[in-house]
Amino acid sequence: MKNGIANVWLLGLVIVFIAMFSAYIIITIEYSKSFKIKNEVLTIIEKHKGITTKDNHTSGTSLINGETITTNVNGIQTINLYLMGSNYTAKGKCPETDRSKDNIWYGVSDLGSVDSIGNSFEKAQSNKKYYYCFARYDANLKGGKYKAIYYRVRLFYKFEVPVLSDFLSVRVDGLTDEIYDPQDESAGIETGNGKVYTIN
Q: Where are the domains of the chain?
């Protein structure tokens, strides 16, 4: 009888260890996917020279038949399309806007649909959840030919465990390289000092 109880206890310990190890592997894989998505969003912002809202003619090669396709999409629509294509569904709260730290955060609460790509964002509200958040910063370069900016982006990591997803909001932050000659003048995105930067 004692051997039977000891074996059950040992079997339970092995099962708990296997479950913990499996959860660790799944969380690590999902977290690395979130970093990949974050890096692609930063690349899109850099390619569009900011969060643009005007349509640009963008061409690309189709993966299906190799033809060149030209589309009219802007920076924010490209990000939203990429997130929809990546099955990104995580939401979280944006940081508070703090003018003393020279930042104003914006949030995107609607990625749109396949037929109608989302193109809107708003100043982040503390009681609302967003798919992703971003803030624009002036690089404060002196004597340069071009104005330079950079963006800070926040995406969220989604736990697939029901109890943890309600209590834990894990974020993935990123920062673009300096963007010279930004093309986001029509977007109306402010930096923390309240000034909307435009290209002269």
A: 2-180
Kindly state the tokens that stand for 156: 């969220």
Q: Which residues contact 132 (CB under 8 A, 6 or more apart)?
A: 41, 79, 83, 107, 108, 153, 154, 155, 156
For 6-42, write each residue's pLDDT tens digit.
Answer: 677 788 888 988 988 887 887 788 778 888 999 999 9
Phi, psi angle pair for 167, to nearest 5° = -100, -30
Report the alpha-carbon angle 83-158-29, nearest 5. 90
Q: What is the pLDDT of residues 67-76, one digit of tens each?
A: 655 566 778 8
| DSSP-assigned states of every residue in 105-169 | EEEE---B-SSSB----EE--TT--BSEEEEEEE---SS-SS-EEEEEEEEEE--SSHHHHHH--
Q: Is the pTM of this model over 0.85?
A: no
- Report pLDDT digits (tens) over 133-184: 998 888 766 666 667 888 899 998 876 665 555 556 678 888 888 888 777 7
Buried b (16+ CB within 10 A) or exposed e, 102-125: ebbbbbbbebbeeeebbbebeebe
How confident is the prediction for the chain on average, in pLDDT? 75
Note the maximum CA span of the chain: 86
Instruction: Please tell me the distance from the alpha carbon of residue 104 to that of residue 195, in angstroms, as a whole number.
Output: 11
Cβ contact 105:124 at 8 Å: yes
